[in-house]
Amino acid sequence: MSTGEIKVNYSSMEALRGGLRQQSAEIQTQLDDLEATANQLWGNWDGDAKEAFAQAKARWSASMAQMHEILGDTEAKVGASAMQYADTDRANAQRML
């Protein structure tokens, strides 16, 4: 049941932003490691397996680019929301003076 209240914890919002950045970077590192390993093996592959891997890599690269964009947008929106809440909080405090 809604109480009609909004409670904002600025440090939690900042922690969320940091977590989004960290997870995005960790995923990218793992993908970079996988690609480096695959590139080392690439010259030894022939036939259907090589083509199947190339197609899978193209799909995951596109999906990862989309995910990074979503994570970046989410991080930015969380930051903007925190700033708006803080600005509103300061404005309300000024009205009390």
Automatic annotation (TrEMBL):
InterPro entries linked: ESAT-6-like_sf, T7SS_ESAT-6-like
Pfam families (UniProt xref): WXG100
Instruction: Give the superkingdom in one word.
Output: Bacteria
Q: Give the range the annotation lists for the signal sequence.
A: none
Name the NCBIfam families for this protein.
WXG100_ESAT6
> Which family does the similarity line name?
Belongs to the WXG100 family.
Descriptive protein name: ESAT-6-like protein
What species was this sequence derived from? Arachnia propionica
